[in-house]
Amino acid sequence: MLSNFKVVLVETSHPGNIGAVARAMKNMGMDQLRLVSPKYFPHADATARASGADDVLRHAGCFASLPEALADCQIVFGASARDRTISWPSLTARELAETWAATDDVAQPNIALVFGRENSGLKNHELDLCHYLLRIPCNPDYSSLNLAAAVQVVCYELFVAGGRQSASTIGDRGEAPLATAAQMEAFYEHLQQTMADIGFLHPERSRSIMRRLRRIFNRTQLDTKELDILRGILRFSQNHNTK
Ligand code: SAH
């Protein structure tokens, strides 16, 4: 089981798609489904389309917001059919699988695969919570797959790569565990507050600067000890500033 992978669906409108996602996941040996404010769930259409994967539906976690669904995840991928104006680092489904799938998932970080709404995908503020964009290469003139089809392709790539590989070394450096999304969010708040306190951050520019800073830190994949050092520096400079 690729149990360190969490499939996260954001505000899905059609319950049938949720069922089809559960089926797609179970076919590929995955069972960790998280739902953020689905329009209708549970629902007979979801159960019908799950077609025997109703155990995945039964165990699905429901969350009121995306940050809550991601709180214990260390690496977050946001699947998007569209090119975005923000230049986030991006990976294809195959590249994701080749880098992150591993047969031994005991020591593996929790990895979230976030999928957007059927009609409008993921919003920019949701992509801000993701470390990488995840793309399924396809016809550039018709690039939006059905939600469950998109989940199917990604899970398939993970399944195939998982059977081929031994444990990935990335994210398993034998040191402190990688920081979770919740720890990183607390860090970004602390960073933003400190930059405001020391007069560095102009409120009008804070959004674009924070987005760029996130991009830097997402590239580095901080572990909890490294994060402690950075928080220590922030605390120090805040204390120093108020003296
Ligand atoms: N109309 C939406 C697409 C919705 S499809 C839009 O313009 O964004 C529902 C979800 O499936 C998307 O949010 C995305 O997470 C996933 N998806 C669909 N096609 C994809 C593709 N080619 N690459 C990556 N993810 C895709």
Automatic annotation (TrEMBL):
<comment type="subunit">
    <text>Homodimer.</text>
</comment>
<dbReference type="InterPro" id="IPR001537">
    <property type="entry name" value="SpoU_MeTrfase"/>
</dbReference>
<comment type="similarity">
    <text>Belongs to the class IV-like SAM-binding methyltransferase superfamily. RNA methyltransferase TrmH family.</text>
</comment>
<keyword id="KW-0808">Transferase</keyword>
<keyword id="KW-0489">Methyltransferase</keyword>
<dbReference type="InterPro" id="IPR029026">
    <property type="entry name" value="tRNA_m1G_MTases_N"/>
</dbReference>
<protein>
    <recommendedName>
        <fullName>tRNA (cytidine/uridine-2'-O-)-methyltransferase TrmJ</fullName>
        <ecNumber>2.1.1.200</ecNumber>
    </recommendedName>
</protein>
<keyword id="KW-0949">S-adenosyl-L-methionine</keyword>
<dbReference type="GO" id="GO:0002128">
    <property type="term" value="P:tRNA nucleoside ribose methylation"/>
</dbReference>
<dbReference type="InterPro" id="IPR004384">
    <property type="entry name" value="RNA_MeTrfase_TrmJ/LasT"/>
</dbReference>
<dbReference type="GO" id="GO:0003723">
    <property type="term" value="F:RNA binding"/>
</dbReference>
<dbReference type="InterPro" id="IPR029028">
    <property type="entry name" value="Alpha/beta_knot_MTases"/>
</dbReference>
<keyword id="KW-0963">Cytoplasm</keyword>
<dbReference type="GO" id="GO:0005829">
    <property type="term" value="C:cytosol"/>
</dbReference>
<comment type="function">
    <text>Catalyzes the formation of 2'O-methylated cytidine (Cm32) or 2'O-methylated uridine (Um32) at position 32 in tRNA.</text>
</comment>
<dbReference type="GO" id="GO:0160206">
    <property type="term" value="F:tRNA (cytidine(32)/uridine(32)-2'-O)-methyltransferase activity"/>
</dbReference>
<dbReference type="Pfam" id="PF00588">
    <property type="entry name" value="SpoU_methylase"/>
</dbReference>
<keyword id="KW-0819">tRNA processing</keyword>
